[in-house]
Amino acid sequence: MSVYISDGKKLIDIEYDDIPTINDMVDGMRVLSTDKRAEDENALFMLESNGNICCYILDEIFIIGKVDGFENLVDAIKAWNNNEI
């Protein structure tokens, strides 16, 4: 398990080809699932402290999108698959 932090715009102290995986921690949240839409576009689905799910969309180490407040992982993944995120 690796621990990552961000400055809100990018992951800090990480190599460009290093992508967080399941059970890693990002900004204090555990990564529950990941997915890839394009060569450099990755989604990280994470458990927030309030029990909701949030999603970071990464282009390499840069956070290009962030959506929070999903009630469960299934809803978050459906939104990602339907290009709603």
Question: Which labels suit this protein?
Answer:
globular, mainly beta, 6 strands, 1 helix, six-stranded mixed β-sheet, 85 residues
Structure description:
With 85 residues, the protein is mainly beta. The chain has one helix at 73-81; strands spanning 3-4, 25-26, 29-38, 41-47, 53-59, 62-70. A 6-stranded mixed β-sheet has the order 1-2-3-4-5-6. Strand 5 (53-59) and strand 6 form a beta hairpin. The longest helix is centred in the last third of the chain and has 9 residues, at 73-81. The mean pLDDT is 94.
Question: How would you briefly describe this protein structure?
Answer:
The protein is mainly beta and 85 residues long.
Structural class per helix/strand content? Answer: mainly beta
Proportion of residues in β-strands: 35-45%
Distance between the termini: 26 Å
The percent of residues in helical segments reads: 10-25%
Order of adjacent strands in the largest pleated sheet: 1-2-3-4-5-6
Order of SSEs, N→C?
EEEEEEH
- Major sheet size, sense and barrel closure: 6 strands, mixed
- Computed over alpha carbons, the radius of gyration is 12 Å
Count the DSSP helices: 1
Give the uncertain stretches in residue-range form.
none
How many strands appear in the DSSP assignment? 6
Average pLDDT, all residues: 94
Oligomeric form: single chain
Q: Note the overall shape.
A: globular
